[in-house]
């Protein structure tokens, strides 16, 4: 055999094939052998063993001391910053380099944007208005989260419960207020169930999150709430006098997480409380003082920290749900900034399915939440593959048809007279009226400043931009949404648009044709709506023949439809409900009322979900409120009424199916507009899934404090927890809602007061005007000639008096 030839070990190659087969099929790996044993030996070019230098012991930093070495399957990762243990975990590239600036709150306060505007104002600069510097989405949609938790009753504070909120950011950090329990801290409890095997990835994430501020990114339905409940349970045990906070963006999410965490961790409900903006301020003060596990919204916690109702030094653990919201001025950011300046001794666990659409967005979440470790799993991660169900996509491109195409072309020709001058001035990037978005038109306002002469010499463009923005919105409704919505925008333009446009023959023709089309008998509003109805009929008809593989009973199925605009949601519901009882559809929208539609309170939202789960409805037609967090139940079919450009929203929509069994997603797209955007949306969807595993290196915080002493290494104790039935009413301190208090105030009769009882008898009890009370000015004296002239005139008879006199005396003499 020559020096250039190799002899392959057939046994070793067979072992490699077995490993590859196991990884592809998701089965267990073969026993450790020659090719997959953990102990690797480094050799030189001649086959000799390279002497290994002895590694220096790791530095005993405060945030990493003793966190590894007892992790179970996969290991704890030791001093790593991301989930880099065994078990086929997806790894993120990280660098431990950041230190928290304790003066951050002193610089920015509760609002970074507010501080920036104040700074700009102090320098004499014009602050950037809402929707300018912070506009980030090219797509219009009804924002349903603007009323997260803002009806706070903030009056009537009782000074007995208030904490001093003054502080000096330059002062040394105070020691931790509460010491851990010496016996309880020797173990950490991990709940197990006999009928459900332990999931290794959950176990690994839990015990790492106990010792580091951790960002957990898991696909929807893989147990983020379980991880949170276990971490909360152990901090509840370790710190008998500390407080554990679970923060969720909306009240329905808060209520949902109370139920989930109770049955997972079994924390006594006497120590738990729900505190939101619906809880009166005085009762919240009592709740913060007497309870240890608090479920709340970040807006409420932010207000109560600012008011001094909550002592920041009492807090030992904060769980942040839907952590991707921790950007800009959202309340999550203000809470963590304030806590870090007053009490850096607390653990943070951040949960999300979609950390960010780009690496920069993920880094912002890390920066705002003081994250020191990342635990990420994607759909293809080896340790979760067996728990992930398949999701199939169908893309349905629909032609507009003859009538809608004719309307589109007529409307596009009207838009061109406004597009061309703006395009010539380089205020628009395209002349394609069909593809032009309202967002792109609005951006032209900012570009005017860059033209020669600025805003002063280019004022003629402002009315053009205003009119074109309304026309672009109308085009989007026509092509993507519905004829009814298009007609509604036409009427808005007729009332507030350019007179030249409204009075033109082209506009009147489009308005006349649209009205005639909308009033036609049997017209459903858009080809998408007609296709949607036929797909739902087919889905539920086929489901009638399906049987559950375990019970043999007819399998119930649910459909969820997502739409960007609430007005179109109502149209879809009306269209589908023509097929009752086969299809029973209901809208699921946010709180804010919009034009022609009334919002749903958060209580009504929860009731809608309950009825949907129970089977009163089998189709849920939702706006963005249905994308995030809420447990809506098992969904077999997701229909996206439009191809969404936002990758985070798309990922959240897709995550609504495929939880307990395989799911199906259908995306409806209008030919000529949406199909061109699908590739871009799909690429962005892949980017958001891979944001944490991209080539970007994330900078993590190295100064996250280890809460337990360095010599305390808790051992896992697996316990089967049987929680007592939850009495949710006992966990709320709502008192009376703002609406109830207002209604009672209106019903309460006013006490009648006799205002004349103590008044003098000659007192004037009426009302005098200011003119009546004013002293009249003296009239200016007339000249003598004028006085004599008036006296003479007053002494003479008038013509009428003279006629009466003549008539009388002539009659008497006769």
TrEMBL record:
<protein>
    <recommendedName>
        <fullName>ATP-dependent DNA helicase</fullName>
        <ecNumber>3.6.4.12</ecNumber>
    </recommendedName>
</protein>
<dbReference type="InterPro" id="IPR039686">
    <property type="entry name" value="FANCM/Mph1-like_ID"/>
</dbReference>
<feature type="region of interest" description="Disordered">
    <location>
        <begin position="45"/>
        <end position="95"/>
    </location>
</feature>
<dbReference type="GO" id="GO:0036297">
    <property type="term" value="P:interstrand cross-link repair"/>
</dbReference>
<comment type="function">
    <text>ATP-dependent DNA helicase involved in DNA damage repair by homologous recombination and in genome maintenance. Capable of unwinding D-loops. Plays a role in limiting crossover recombinants during mitotic DNA double-strand break (DSB) repair. Component of a FANCM-MHF complex which promotes gene conversion at blocked replication forks, probably by reversal of the stalled fork.</text>
</comment>
<dbReference type="GO" id="GO:0009378">
    <property type="term" value="F:four-way junction helicase activity"/>
</dbReference>
<feature type="compositionally biased region" description="Gly residues">
    <location>
        <begin position="66"/>
        <end position="89"/>
    </location>
</feature>
<keyword id="KW-0067">ATP-binding</keyword>
<dbReference type="GO" id="GO:0016887">
    <property type="term" value="F:ATP hydrolysis activity"/>
</dbReference>
<feature type="compositionally biased region" description="Acidic residues">
    <location>
        <begin position="136"/>
        <end position="162"/>
    </location>
</feature>
<keyword id="KW-0547">Nucleotide-binding</keyword>
<comment type="similarity">
    <text>Belongs to the DEAD box helicase family. DEAH subfamily. FANCM sub-subfamily.</text>
</comment>
<keyword id="KW-0378">Hydrolase</keyword>
<dbReference type="InterPro" id="IPR006935">
    <property type="entry name" value="Helicase/UvrB_N"/>
</dbReference>
<dbReference type="GO" id="GO:0005524">
    <property type="term" value="F:ATP binding"/>
</dbReference>
<dbReference type="Pfam" id="PF00271">
    <property type="entry name" value="Helicase_C"/>
</dbReference>
<dbReference type="InterPro" id="IPR044749">
    <property type="entry name" value="FANCM_DEXDc"/>
</dbReference>
<dbReference type="InterPro" id="IPR014001">
    <property type="entry name" value="Helicase_ATP-bd"/>
</dbReference>
<dbReference type="Pfam" id="PF04851">
    <property type="entry name" value="ResIII"/>
</dbReference>
<dbReference type="InterPro" id="IPR027417">
    <property type="entry name" value="P-loop_NTPase"/>
</dbReference>
<dbReference type="GO" id="GO:0000400">
    <property type="term" value="F:four-way junction DNA binding"/>
</dbReference>
<dbReference type="GO" id="GO:0005634">
    <property type="term" value="C:nucleus"/>
</dbReference>
<feature type="region of interest" description="Disordered">
    <location>
        <begin position="107"/>
        <end position="162"/>
    </location>
</feature>
<dbReference type="GO" id="GO:0045003">
    <property type="term" value="P:double-strand break repair via synthesis-dependent strand annealing"/>
</dbReference>
<feature type="compositionally biased region" description="Basic residues">
    <location>
        <begin position="121"/>
        <end position="131"/>
    </location>
</feature>
<feature type="domain" description="Helicase C-terminal">
    <location>
        <begin position="545"/>
        <end position="706"/>
    </location>
</feature>
<keyword id="KW-0347">Helicase</keyword>
<keyword id="KW-0539">Nucleus</keyword>
<comment type="subunit">
    <text>Interacts with the MHF histone-fold complex to form the FANCM-MHF complex.</text>
</comment>
<dbReference type="GO" id="GO:0043138">
    <property type="term" value="F:3'-5' DNA helicase activity"/>
</dbReference>
<dbReference type="InterPro" id="IPR001650">
    <property type="entry name" value="Helicase_C-like"/>
</dbReference>
<feature type="domain" description="Helicase ATP-binding">
    <location>
        <begin position="205"/>
        <end position="373"/>
    </location>
</feature>
């Amino acid at each position: 055999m020559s020096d250039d030839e190799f002899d392959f070990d057939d046994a070793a190659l067979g072992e490699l094939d077995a490993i590859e087969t196991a990884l592809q099929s998701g089965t267990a790996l073969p026993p450790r052998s020659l090719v997959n044993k953990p102990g690797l030996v480094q050799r030189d070019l001649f086959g000799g063993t390279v002497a290994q230098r002895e590694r220096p012991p790791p530095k005993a930093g405060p945030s990493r001391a003793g966190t590894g070495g007892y992790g179970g399957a996969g290991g704890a990762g030791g001093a790593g910053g991301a989930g880099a243990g065994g078990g086929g975990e997806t790894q993120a590239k990280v660098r431990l380099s950041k230190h928290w600036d304790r003066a951050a709150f002193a610089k920015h306060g509760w609002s970074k944007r507010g501080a920036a505007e104040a700074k700009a104002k102090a320098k004499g600069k014009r602050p950037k208005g809402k929707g300018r510097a912070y506009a980030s989405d090219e797509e219009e949609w009804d924002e349903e989260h603007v009323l997260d938790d803002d009806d706070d009753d903030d009056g009537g504070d009782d000074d007995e419960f208030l904490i001093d909120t003054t502080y000096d950011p330059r002062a040394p950090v105070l020691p931790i207020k509460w010491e851990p329990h010496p016996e309880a801290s020797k173990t950490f409890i991990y709940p197990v169930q006999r009928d459900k095997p332990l999931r290794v990835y959950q176990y690994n994430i839990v015990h790492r999150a106990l010792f580091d501020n951790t960002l957990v990114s898991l696909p929807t339905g893989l147990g983020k709430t379980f991880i949170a409940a276990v971490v909360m349970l152990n901090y509840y045990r370790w710190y008998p006098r500390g407080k554990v906070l679970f923060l969720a963006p909306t009240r329905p999410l808060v209520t949902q997480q109370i139920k989930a965490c109770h049955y997972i961790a079994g924390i006594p409900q006497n120590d738990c409380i729900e505190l939101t903006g619906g809880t009166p301020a005085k009762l919240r003060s009592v709740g913060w003082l007497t309870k240890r596990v608090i479920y709340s919204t970040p807006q409420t916690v932010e207000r109560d920290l600012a008011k001094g109702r909550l002592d920041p030094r009492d807090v030992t653990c904060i769980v942040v749900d839907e952590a991707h919201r921790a950007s800009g001025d959202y309340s999550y950011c203000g809470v963590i900034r304030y806590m870090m300046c007053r009490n850096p001794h607390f653990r943070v666990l951040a949960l999300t399915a979609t950390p960010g659409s780009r690496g920069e967005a993920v880094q912002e979440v890390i920066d705002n939440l003081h994250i020191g470790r990342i635990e990420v799993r994607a759909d293809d991660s080896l340790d979760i593959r067996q728990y992930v169900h398949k999701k199939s996509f169908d893309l349905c491109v629909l032609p507009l048809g003859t009538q809608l195409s004719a309307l589109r072309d007529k409307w596009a020709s009207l838009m061109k007279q406004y597009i061309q001058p703006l395009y010539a001035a380089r205020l628009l990037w395209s002349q394609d009226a069909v593809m032009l978005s309202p967002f792109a038109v609005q951006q032209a306002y900012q570009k005017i400043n860059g033209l020669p002469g600025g805003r002063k010499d280019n004022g003629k463009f402002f009315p053009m931009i205003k009119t074109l923005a309304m026309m672009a919105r109308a085009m989007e409704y026509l092509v993507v949404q519905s004829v009814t919505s298009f007609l509604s925008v036409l009427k808005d333009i007729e009332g507030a648009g350019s007179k030249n446009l409204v009075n033109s023959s082209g506009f009147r023709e489009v308005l006349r044709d649209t009205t005639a089309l909308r009033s036609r008998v049997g017209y459903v509003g858009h080809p998408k709506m007609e296709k949607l109805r036929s797909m739902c009929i087919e889905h539920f008809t086929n489901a009638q023949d399906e049987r559950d593989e375990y019970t043999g009973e007819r399998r119930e199925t649910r459909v969820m439809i997502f739409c960007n605009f609430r007005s179109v949601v109502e149209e879809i519901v009306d269209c589908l409900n023509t097929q009752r009882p086969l299809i029973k559809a209901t809208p699921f929208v946010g709180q804010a009322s919009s034009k022609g539609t009334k919002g749903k309170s958060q209580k009504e939202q929860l009731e809608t979900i309950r009825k949907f789960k129970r089977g009163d409805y089998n189709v849920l037609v939702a706006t963005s409120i249905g994308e995030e967090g809420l447990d809506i139940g098992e969904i077999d079919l997701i229909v996206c009424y439009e191809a969404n450009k936002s990758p985070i929203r798309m990922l959240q929509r897709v995550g609504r199916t495929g939880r307990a069994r395989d799911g199906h997603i259908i995306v409806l797209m209008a030919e000529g507009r949406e199909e061109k955007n699908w590739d871009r949306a799909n690429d962005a969807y892949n980017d958001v899934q891979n944001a944490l595993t991209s080539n970007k290196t994330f900078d993590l915080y190295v100064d996250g404090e280890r809460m337990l002493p360095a010599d305390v290494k808790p051992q896992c104790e697996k316990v089967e927890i049987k929680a007592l039935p939850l009495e949710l009413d006992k966990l709320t301190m709502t008192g009376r809602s703002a609406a109830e208090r207002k209604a009672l105030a209106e019903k309460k009769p006013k006490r009648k007061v006799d205002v004349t009882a103590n008044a003098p008898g000659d007192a004037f009890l009426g009302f005098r005007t200011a003119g009546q009370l004013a002293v009249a000015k003296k009239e200016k004296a007339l000249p003598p000639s004028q006085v004599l002239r008036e006296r003479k005139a007053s002494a003479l008879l008038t013509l009428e008096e003279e006629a009466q006199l003549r008539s009388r005396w002539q009659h008497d003499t006769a």
